[in-house]
Structures are given as structure tokens and as C-alpha cells.
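Reminder: ligand-aware prediction takes two inputs, not one.
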Amino acid sequence: MNESRDQLADLVRGFRAGLFAELRRGRRFVRADATPRVLRGDGVAHAEPLGIVAAADPHPTAGGLEALRVELGDCQRCRLCEQRQHIVFGIGNPVAELMFVGEAPGRDEDLQGEPFVGKAGQLLTRMIGAMGLTREAVYICNIVKCRPPNNRDPAPDEIAQCEPFLVRQIELIAPRLIVALGGFAAKTLIGTETGITRLRGKWHEYQGVPLMPTFHPAYLLRNPEGKRPVWNDLQAVMAEMDRLGLPRTR
Ligand code: SF4
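Here is what comes back for the chain with iron/sulfur cluster:
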């Protein structure tokens, strides 16, 4: 009895999340063959593909992200602006079903203006590939958009200044599922002090969107034994994508 009640609740939750996502997007009925569009890390200067989209697709997400990047501007809302080379806004499909959220840009990301491009980023790209996806099919960003000096953790006041932009990114993209990469992203999105070892492997929620926390790829470079649990977490994400009928084949 309890099991069927749980299944029903699960079904309703999934339906509700999907319906809200579709309503927020208003896009799924427009172009089933839509090519993924890429909004590069520093936004406007690299947004060339979006021009095509704006003409062909009335969905406002791509334009909304571009407008959000314009609003962020040459941001100096917190002290992380002082040593950054580039604002690392986010990259990928502006209507992605799956979103990866990490902690903060590192050195390579700061230099290139794109999230997850260093060694950890290359590992993330392989992980996404192993899921039957591409970087262009998902959306990747971080909690804060500028590199903290010496890769320290972002401070609470820095997160407070930057997080509204992440919140709006998530609202605009309206992903069906989120993967939080590392303890810092997981704790910030879930709003808990519980460590990643206890958070990972279980579904949580961010604003009604199912969220799976897992280890950060940078952690895996230092601790290869973490790869198996991460793969288990990603398999749970793949199973959920399949259950929701979300496309996963490249
Ligand atoms: S981290 Fe965010 S709030 Fe701080 S300067 Fe960079 S973009 Fe602005």
C-alpha cells in the first residue's frame, strides 16, 4: 500500500515538475529537431548561433539568457571581480533538460571564459559522453561566475551577490534534472550543511527540480576511487531521464 502511494506521489511529482518546466519554456511544441544552441562563457560576444535561433524559434530562453548576461555586464558586485580575467557565465543548450552546476571557475576557465575546460572539465565532458550526451546538449555553469583567488571557496557574501543570476539561469533554462558537482554546489543549492559524502547518491530538490549531488570531477582527479560512486549517481540520472522520456542518445 505504502509502495503504491509512494509510486503515485512520485508520478505526480514528476508530472508536476515536467508540466511547470514546459509551461515556463513554452517551447517543446515548437521544433523537435532543434539544434542545440551554445551561449559561450563570456556571453554576448560569442552568441552568434543565437541570432539564427531568435529568427526561427520564438522561445525566449536563449534571448533571456543573453539578456541576463547583458544585465550581469562587467559585474563588480563582489570582490571576485578584482582578479578575474573573464566572467564565466555558462555554456550549453539554453533549453537543456539536464543542467550541471559546479562551484566556481578555476584557472583555465578564468582564462578561457568557459566553465569546465581544464582537466576536471575534460573529465566532466567524458562523463557526459558516457551518459550518451554532449556538452552542447546540456547546460553547464557554476554557483559563482568569477574565479576565487587561489581557488579558495567562495565566501557567503560573494555567493549572495552572484546567486540571483544562477537562480534566473535555472528559471530560464528550466531543466528537468540538475546534477550538483561537489559539496559546495550541493550544499548551496540544497541549503544544507550536510557533506557531499552523505548527500550524494540520493535525489534532492531545487525549486521543485530533482537534483542529484555527486563528487566534483576535480575531486575524482585526486581520488580515482570516487569514480565508481559517481558513475552510480550518473546512472541514476540516466534512469530518471529515461523514465521521464528525455532524449539521451547523441
Ligand atoms: S562572482 Fe558573480 S557577483 Fe561576484 S563579481 Fe563575479 S559575476 Fe559579479
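The first strand starts at residue 91 and ends at 92. The chain has ten helices and six strands. We will return to this case in the review session.
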